[in-house]
Amino acid sequence: MRTQGAVRAVCMLMPAALSGALSTMLNADTFARVHYDAQTDELVATMIYMGTNPDHAFTVQWGACQAPSPGGRIQEITADVLDSQWDDAAIRSYRKTVRFALANLSCRPAKLTLRTAPRFLYTVMIPQAPGAAP
């Protein structure tokens, strides 16, 4: 009889656990598109996010520049895209295009991997800075 009670308890808790996981996934920011704009030397990212309002601001937190892997020729860098309203209730879906200046990014050329919570990734190649010697 104890086994039946344990099974019932697990069955009762399962919907709550799944609901929490689904809520996290629905509230996550993700990328619709990312590209490098050579004319402005910016990274252009179209973000898709959930919230109660469209006024979320996105910033980039740069990681450390990594030397090329053995046999590789290009540096790598990761960056986290942070949402100013990461805890906003997931009521409605929004889309916003944001631009991140790359003028001060010294890790170039590089393979850039952008991340958002909870583990959405987007990789884009960043060329040598305009006017820089190869």
Write the layout of secondary structure elements.
Blueprint: H1 2-26, E1 30-37, E2 42-51, E3 58-62, E4 75-83, E5 92-101, E6 110-116, E7 120-126
Walkthrough of the structure:
This protein has 134 residues and is α+β, with helices and mostly antiparallel strands. It has one domain (29-126): NigD-like, C-terminal beta sandwich domain (Immunoglobulin-like). 19% of the residues lie in helices and 42% in strands. It has one helix at 2-26, and strands spanning 30-37, 42-51, 58-62, 75-83, 92-101, 110-116, 120-126. The strands form two sheets. It has a four-stranded mixed beta sheet, with no helix packed on it. A hairpin with a 3-residue loop joins β6 (110-116) and β7 (120-126).
- What would CATH call the architecture? Sandwich
List segments where confidence is low: pLDDT < 50 over at least 5 consecutive residues.
9-26
Q: How far apart are the first and last residues' alpha carbons, in Å?
A: 74 Å
Helix content: 10-25%
Total helices: the number is 1
Largest sheet descriptor? 4 strands, mixed
* Sequence of secondary-structure elements: HEEEEEEE
What value does the Rg take, in angstroms? 20 Å
Summarize the structure.
With 134 residues, the chain is of the alpha+beta class. The chain has one helix spanning 2-26; strands spanning 30-37, 42-51, 58-62, 75-83, 92-101, 110-116, 120-126.
Structural key phrases:
134 residues, alpha+beta, Immunoglobulin-like, 4-stranded mixed sheet, 3-stranded antiparallel sheet, 19% helix
